[in-house]
Design brief:
The chain is 50% helix and 10% strand. It is α/β, with parallel strands linked by helices. Strands 1-8-7-6-5-4-3-2 form an eight-stranded parallel sheet. Helix 9 runs antiparallel to helix 10 (231-248).
């Protein structure tokens, strides 16, 4: 990879047609939209990408389409290794590298809650198996598995390509500061959790965020103003986003559903179908969503 990954690197929503089949044309379009509008990378198989609802054949094809779209639209791809077996995860990592991924993200195994030593060895084995940069994801709210900052620091020291860290614990800020202090500010950290704490964590040293993909331009507005020194404009844009996030992100299946609804309303995908089990909304919730959407749409010309 020729340059550092930083900035806004959204999680790709898995687009399905109205029959629940993967729409690969829409997948290509989502990635192209992110790449052509200045995102730092497009991230495949994130937690909000419904990776756990895909077949092996679908995942393979989605990797091919994502890499192709990134290459044809001057973007970068991050592909997440989500397998719970270390042996299988290593094979997947090698396959993703061979397929053309620019970076790997590791979601540490969490089924049956393996101990800290096993998690460390799992991540180290994947990093040692490939030459491309690797990112570790820390999402204890979704996985129920805790990982100490010292574990990531050890990986950073022992694996030269273990470069990036996606932090989405709650609260994220002190954890980010611990990582930066323990590594003399070397850590390259991305914010998760839909970017709720984006401003704070960038103040603490984060280099970007990995939110959902439907409102990528809002996050770019926040990030670009922040790095340009326009702090008040960044905070203003972030404050305008928070009511929408607070409404649609009360659980993971919920934000997956509304991410797709936004993508469809913006004409980026044709169908907002979510594979079941999925989130069931109601009329009042939809009314509030429409009000927030109109505010965001007017501000960003959707």
């Amino acid at each position: 990879m020729n340059s550092e990954i930083k900035g806004i690197c959204p999680i790709i929503a898995a687009p399905f047609d109205s029959n629940g089949e993967v729409d690969y044309d829409d997948l290509y379009n989502v990635v192209a939209t992110l790449s052509n509008n200045g995102c730092g990378a497009s991230t495949l198989f994130g937690i909000a990408g419904e990776y756990y609802k895909l077949s092996d054949d679908e995942r393979k094809k989605m990797v091919e389409v994502t890499v192709k779209s990134c290459r044809e639209n001057n973007g970068k791809s991050i592909i997440s290794v989500t397998d719970h077996s270390t042996e299988v995860a290593v094979k997947q990592a090698k396959y993703f590298e061979k397929a053309g991924a620019d970076c790997l993200m590791i979601l540490p195994p969490f089924f049956l809650k393996p101990g800290a030593g096993y998690l460390y060895e799992h991540m180290k084995a994947i990093a040692n198996a490939v030459d491309i940069p690797v990112m570790a994801q820390y999402a204890p709210e979704q996985t129920g598995v805790a990982i100490s900052p010292e574990t990531f620091v050890k990986l950073e020291k022992e694996c030269p390509n273990m470069i990036y860290y996606k932090i989405e614990c709650k609260p994220a800020g002190p954890y980010v500061t611990n990582l930066m202090n323990l590594t003399d500010n070397r850590m390259k950290i991305f914010v998760g959790n839909a970017g709720f704490q984006l401003i704070e964590c960038m103040d603490r040293g984060a280099i970007g965020a990995m939110p959902g993909c439907s409102m990528f331009d809002v996050y770019l507005d926040i990030y670009n103003n922040y790095v340009a020194g326009n702090r008040e404009a960044a905070i203003d844009a972030h404050n305008k986003l928070l009511p929408m996030l607070n409404h649609i992100r009360q659980n993971v299946e919920q934000i997956i559903s509304f991410e797709k609804r936004i993508l469809k309303k913006r004409g980026i995908i044709k169908s907002d179908y979510c594979r079941k089990p999925s989130y069931a909304t109601d009329a009042y919730f939809d009314k509030l969503f429409d009000e927030f959407y109109q505010e965001m749409s007017a501000r960003y010309n959707w």
